[in-house]
Model the fold of this input.
Amino acid sequence: MNIVEKSVGYKLETLGFDVFYDYSNNIFNISKLICKNCDASWFNELNQCIFCSSTFFYSYTCSNRDCLKTFSITMDKKKGNDKKKSTPTCDICNSILYKDCFNDDCISNKNTFIREEIINLTNEEGLFFNKSSFKISQHWCLKCGNNQSYYNSATLKVEVVNNINDLEKFKKNKIINNYIFYLLNNEKFLTITSNDFVLNELQDLNKYKDDLEIKNLKFVY
Ligand SMILES: [Zn+2]
Ligand SMILES: [Zn+2]
Ligand SMILES: [Zn+2]
Done:
């Protein structure tokens, strides 16, 4: 991989794509799980409450419903007063901290019977306990609430050229959906689909930008 390819790969990763580099063809295969309704990103590693679909923010909540102070889950567990169990406790009211659902109106918080069952069944850690069966990976879109997602994927080749005259010798490859041309002397990118791959488009300097243009990429489902 050359340095331009590396920076393109890194950029795509920061935008939430799964990025695979095919070393035999020197192309990228990229994919992203997105909402079927609104195209928002979908995160399999995200946990949601099974009852109300609220997202887990990696925080503890004070078990005292009148206090409800929250603490980062990375807090020093030794701060808890109950050192034997290393159970973290609230520094205001001294109650035990749970990994509760954040939604006050969630049945897991409002219904005392259900709440006690959850505490018992989660090793007294709360709904978002690591092995809890009351949490699920993302099931509903965070933006529109839709419950269906799909993988968007694309092939992409990065071509580094000195200047636009070098582009005359390029021929597109059928297996590649998208090209990113990088002009060394201008330090600019052209993000273009195979469909739009015609020489006068490639040589139009106005189409070259300082950064990748993800919106130009063509995906297949
Ligand atoms: Zn909930
Ligand atoms: Zn408290
Ligand atoms: Zn959505």
About this structure: The pocket of zinc ion (ligand 3) is lined by residues 35, 37-38, 40, 141, 143-144, 146 (CB under 6 Å). Helices lie at 3-14, 107-110, 112-121, 199-202. The two ends are 27 Å apart (CA to CA).
